[in-house]
Amino acid sequence: MHWMILPLKRYFEFSGRSCRREYWLFALLNLIVVVGLAILMMGTAGTGAMLSQEMAGADEPFGLLMGGFGLALMAWGLLVFIPSLALTVRRFHDRDMSGWWYAAFIFGSLVPYIGFLVSIGLIVLMALPGTAGPNRYGPDPRDPAGASVFE
């Protein structure tokens, strides 16, 4: 549980390094919350759609999102946007790469026909281990004290 909420504690921290465990457990937390809220949102779809139809007319296209769980889903997305961005930048730092590479992956994923491959490449890159020992972005997050023992 510690690793799942650690990115929320390091909210605006774009410097340093993060290990794979921190990245993937935070991704698992996001998956659990989003799927749970989506199930609750779909389960209460009738009440949200009826409420939005009363408020905005019968042609409201966002009836599901106007319910309480739809708003909670949007709030969760806003809450984890900055920590997710910072965590991915720190994962790039763990691979001894600049965080600006993330911008290249984001823009590359928007290109038709190759965007899917770029997204798969980002997933593979996040699954690869970081550099052993300290690098230019900080000490090894798996063993922060072990790097200076023999220096």
UniProtKB/TrEMBL annotation:
Coiled coil regions, renumbered to chain: none
InterPro entries documented for this protein: DUF805
Record-annotated membrane-spanning stretches: 23-42, 62-87, 99-128
Signal sequence, renumbered to the chain: none
Keyword Membrane applies: yes
GO CC terms, sorted: plasma membrane
One Pfam family here: DUF805
Record has Membrane as a keyword: yes
Key words of the record: Membrane, Transmembrane, Transmembrane helix
Protein name: DUF805 domain-containing protein
